[in-house]
């Protein structure tokens, strides 16, 4: 089965018209906008933003994410220590939400994007259908990473109920927000069609050996 790229065709991202690719960049015959058959420097941008997300993720876990004041005494909590405090207080749902949104989701996104970049660069036994599904899962997880910020808002509501004296957001919130933003940009920078391009190259090489 041939692909659009093999037939010299490309989809305009603005008006979604299929054009005959004669140059790069190509001008759309309908909207006259310029576009490339593939996202330019997709791998480089994805790798750069993903590394930035990983670097932001480190201080997000080292610095306090919230400061709980009880009777005027402040108690700083990192993500992990905060999870432990919620477990000790029996607030298991909040602990699960924070652990999932702050630890599991960012690590899965960062590791998944590194894996996709590695597969595209090496082209070792790619299974593009499965990797495309992985990409869509990573893209879907992006907004849900902000659950941790919503938890802080939830704690403010708890304060108003008088359960805790006072709660303030720590500096880790800023780094965590950057981590979420960087991973979303990295996922958006990655062009999943590159996985299929590699498959085409591998198939052609395999046919040539026969």
TrEMBL record:
<keyword id="KW-0812">Transmembrane</keyword>
<keyword id="KW-1133">Transmembrane helix</keyword>
<feature type="transmembrane region" description="Helical">
    <location>
        <begin position="138"/>
        <end position="166"/>
    </location>
</feature>
<dbReference type="InterPro" id="IPR007498">
    <property type="entry name" value="PqiA-like"/>
</dbReference>
<feature type="transmembrane region" description="Helical">
    <location>
        <begin position="47"/>
        <end position="71"/>
    </location>
</feature>
<dbReference type="GO" id="GO:0005886">
    <property type="term" value="C:plasma membrane"/>
</dbReference>
<keyword id="KW-0472">Membrane</keyword>
<feature type="transmembrane region" description="Helical">
    <location>
        <begin position="91"/>
        <end position="117"/>
    </location>
</feature>
<keyword id="KW-1003">Cell membrane</keyword>
<feature type="transmembrane region" description="Helical">
    <location>
        <begin position="172"/>
        <end position="190"/>
    </location>
</feature>
<dbReference type="InterPro" id="IPR051800">
    <property type="entry name" value="PqiA-PqiB_transport"/>
</dbReference>
<dbReference type="Pfam" id="PF04403">
    <property type="entry name" value="PqiA"/>
</dbReference>
<keyword id="KW-0997">Cell inner membrane</keyword>
<protein>
    <submittedName>
        <fullName>Paraquat-inducible membrane protein A</fullName>
    </submittedName>
</protein>
